[in-house]
Write a structure and sequence with these properties.
Two copies of one chain form a homodimer. By secondary structure, chain A is an alpha+beta fold. Chain A has five helices and three strands, in the order H-H-E-H-H-E-E-H. The structure holds a DNA duplex.
Chain lengths: 100, 100
DNA sequence: ATCGTATATCGTCGATATACGATGAAAGGC
DNA sequence: GCCTTTCATCGTATATCGACGATATACGAT
């Protein structure tokens, strides 16, 4: 399906940047991080980090909640495992019998 | 390692485009395709398809050989499975005990 | 040598991505 | 009330992407 491809491309694009990969690794290690912490570890401006987080959020790769003054971001592990499975499927036994 | 992140980002970026995902699916189905065939199935200009194939090639996601006047492109299945494993690792048990 | 076919590369241009600083909103402490 | 901290968003400058047509290259056929 064509929408699948679009959605996959959006997820992959969201991951296809060193800064966002670093953020994801950080989140994988710490379960949840607030923005300030990610600003320190990525060594980028706070506005830039917020922008990257928005990209990850739009791709359904992270969750987000506010607590006091802070925003906490957390990995969406299901989103990742779905993507990983789709990648496997795509090159292993893709489209045996499907149309597109 | 930082180079790992760069390399992963390049691979992910190479996949992060609907046209290139379609090409990859086509290659997954047919084992090998020449450019002309991909031009027909993607409905893009030949120069555009060549450009996309170059992107996939630089990311080590496809192999390439010439035969007579044609270029044949083929999936690098190892490249894909490596990427899929790295993705799994990244969000499952990334960096238990490593430095970066 | 010339022609036709298949492909790669170049040049261009609009669209999108990436970075930053500035500004403002929300919440807590004084 | 006012100040600080934390974060999101806006505006802007720049870089990269993605599409195309035009051109170059390679090679088999005539």
């Amino acid at each position: 399906m064509s929408e699948d491809i679009e959605r996959q491309a959006i997820k992959l694009a969201a991951l296809a940047h060193p800064a966002r990969l670093k953020i994801v690794r950080q989140l994988a290690n710490e379960n949840a991080c607030c923005v300030k912490h990610l600003v320190v570890t990525t060594d980028l401006a706070q506005s830039t980090v917020s922008q990257h987080l928005k990209t990850l959020l739009k791709a359904d790769l992270v969750f987000f909640r506010t607590e006091k003054q802070s925003s906490w971001y957390e990995l969406n592990r299901e989103g990742f495992s779905q993507l990983s499975k789709e990648l496997d499927h795509m090159f292993n036994d893709c489209c045996k019998g499907c149309d597109s």
